[in-house]
Design goal:
By secondary structure, this protein is of the alpha+beta class. It folds into two domains: 218 residues, Ribosomal Protein S5, domain 2, CATH 3.30.230.10; 181 residues, Alpha-Beta Plaits (2-Layer Sandwich), CATH 3.30.70.890. It has 13 helices and 14 strands. The chain has a six-stranded mixed beta sheet with strand order 6-5-7-4-2-14. It has a five-stranded mixed beta sheet with strand order 1-13-10-12-11. A three-stranded antiparallel beta sheet has the order 3-8-9, sandwiched between helices. A hairpin with a 6-residue loop joins β11 and β12. The longest helix has 25 residues. The chain is globular and about 65 Å long. The N and C termini lie far apart (44 Å). 52% of the residues are buried. Adenosine-5'-diphosphate binds next to β7 and α3. The site of magnesium ion has 4 residues, from α3.
Length: 417
């Protein structure tokens, strides 16, 4: 047997605020004006659908990134993170260009840049210190936890008036996405940032990414009480190196865009809607795929279309407490990501296989893939045991030791102090 698997416990808001504040005062020799927090997320189903105007279903984790912040009167920004307290990064917002900040500081500084670009001229410089218990690069969206906590904090200190309503938060989400895409150079479709700023405790967020929808049309809160159905959601971080910046994610996006062009539609959602409205969806899907020029593109599109179809089915199965059906849909999603979309790696496949063998209702990779985490819907009280079994198999295969956490649908970003 391998070492006992580590479970990552979330910080309480008090602990998170304390850590961020301590780092702030030590670094900048002043008190922060306030502390904000925003969570990482895990997506239950609907993967690689956000950039196809599709559907997805994330929950917010209890694991959050905390930002202690103080405005400045000039345009200088200084940021520091508990990851390396000696590494204070500085930038000047005046004249800042896309990709003008390198490394981790691009994420928070890019948010201020994006808000200024969007016309929020009251946003000036600031000092900020970050503390986080969201594992980095694990597919649980530490990047969105950072950009969204920053967006909320800037909203607070510069009185933008967007943070208090779901609709206002759409503006903050846009700034967080723009920061990741254009300052950090990370291609991201909006799922992570929407989850971090729109989820509510005890609910999964059903997101619809069709363009032009209002706040109320684009999201609904779906009851998600695992305990009521005698289940728990195990999240296991494989700790395999993960990067969405190496071009694979972008390549998938481009293939989807080319496929949409080929089919004469704006996005693959339009195809999905037609397929599922048809008398025989299977034939309709086969008909659409037959119009595509190559096998790879057909596989990618098949994933996107079938995955969009699985999201409402999962919501319905969950609402009637049918965990077998919900699990089966998770398995189908996982297999589609593995064989059609080809975004898994041996660590993800191994973790999923072991979880299923140990009796999970369903298990699949979650997030962008190429590393990161899996989720498994398991009988309440069995998560630790199953996580340990996965860790044992990882040790046998000489993979890095994984870590785990238990996911409870939690609140979105908020002011802590
Ligand atoms: P994920 O969002 O799945 O965790 P990403 O690669 O999208 O993975 O984002 C991880 C990156 O975000 C890190 O490499 C780092 O640049 C930045 N980051 C996130 N959280 C922190 C933090 N607390 N301190 C410093 N940088 C962070
Ligand atoms: Mg990310």
């Amino acid at each position: 047997m391998s070492q006992p698997i580590e479970f990552i416990e979330p910080l309480t808001d008090e602990q998170g605020a304390q850590q961020a504040t301590d780092l702030f005062t030590k670094t900048f020799s002043a008190q922060p004006n306030g502390v904000w927090a925003s969570p990482g997320r895990v997506n239950l189903i609907g993967e690689h659908t956000d950039y196809n105007a599709g559907l997805c279903l994330p929950i917010a984790l209890p694991h959050r990134t905390y930002i202690a912040i103080r405005p400045r009167t000039d345009t200088t920004v200084r940021v520091v993170s508990t990851l390396d307290p000696s590494d204070v990064r500085t930038a000047d917002l005046a004249g800042l260009q896309a990709r003008g900040v390198k490394g981790w500081a691009a994420y928070p500084i890019g948010v201020a840049w994006a808000l200024r670009q969007a016309g929020f001229t009251s946003v000036t410089g600031f000092d900020a210190a970050f503390a986080s218990c969201v594992p980095l690069g694990s597919g649980l969206s530490s990047s969105a936890a950072m950009t969204c906590s920053t967006a909320l904090a800037l909203d607070g200190i510069f009185d933008l008036g967007k943070g208090d309503s779901d609709e206002g938060r759409l503006t903050l989400i846009d700034a967080a996405i723009k920061s990741e895409n254009e300052m950090a150079g990370a291609s991201t479709g909006g799922l992570d940032q929407s989850a971090s700023l729109r989820c509510t405790a005890g609910h999964a967020l059903l997101l619809d990414f069709r363009p032009g929808l209002s706040a109320t049309q684009s999201a609904t809160q779906e009851d998600c009480d695992f305990a009521r159905y005698g289940v728990e959601l195990l999240v296991l971080d494989t700790r395999a190196p993960h990067s969405l910046n190496d071009g694979q994610y972008e390549l998938r996006r481009q293939t989807c865009e080319r496929a949409a062009q080929q089919l004469g539609v704006k996005n693959l959602r339009e195809v999905a809607d037609k397929v599922f409205a048809a008398g025989n969806p299977k034939d309709a899907l086969a008909g659409a795929l037959a119009l595509l020029p190559d096998q790879i593109m057909r596989q990618r599109v098949r994933h996107v279309i079938t995955e969009i179809g699985r999201v409402p089915q999962f919501v319905q199965a969950f609402a009637r407490g049918d965990m077998n059906k919900a699990g089966e849909l998770m398995n189908q999603s996982g297999d589609s990501l593995r064989y059609d979309y080809e975004v898994t790696i041996p660590e993800l496949d191994t973790a999923v296989d072991v979880a299923r063998k140990c009796g999970a209702f369903g298990a699949r990779m979650t997030g962008g893939g190429f590393g990161g985490s899996i989720i498994a819907l398991v009988k309440a009280g069995t998560g630790r045991q199953i996580a340990q079994k996965i860790a044992d198999e990882f040790a046998r295969r000489e993979f890095r030791a994984p870590r785990a956490l238990s996911a409870v649908p939690s609140v979105s970003g908020h002011r802590v102090q």
